[in-house]
């Protein structure tokens, strides 16, 4: 096993603790990490938060870390950060501890709000500008006082169907079918595979920085903080 000088470890940890890490800055070190157990993400080296399997290789990463990996890759170059397999079929991994105990409340809340919004926006047919989704914790944000359903039965059923759906067509181009259909964004495909139930209890006090996005969120789910 390779050993590292203390300054190198310090630099590595500083890089991987960013909310959406750029894997190009550190993934060359992933294979040399001194110790990774079954409940630790190989990218951020912290306990999993929202653990997602990459594909048949079964390698699992925090959703936020895998998100950063996909954001920096082009479609033709999407591979597992560990084994470089290009076969991906994202899946929420229920076999590991995903409580994210080593992630801050603000980190978990920000990522959860972004995922929550993106899933609802996609369900409603709206376009998602992922680079504009900057969420923060606001201690002065008032909790809604009114009662009512947070998400409708129809929304929950449709979101569950997205999790179950393969969501990725591999044969259309080869067969010449559906030429007008745009491919699913890998980021959207990843988020669709996370059950929205896993975001419960994370959204209180969270809001988007951009007012237009916050207004859209409140239009889609006025009581989102209670989820």
TrEMBL record:
InterPro entries assigned: Znf-RING_euk, Znf_RING, Znf_RING/FYVE/PHD, Znf_RING_CS
Top-level taxon: Eukaryota
Name by which UniProt lists this protein: Predicted protein
Organism (species): Coccidioides posadasii (strain RMSCC 757 / Silveira) (Valley fever fungus)
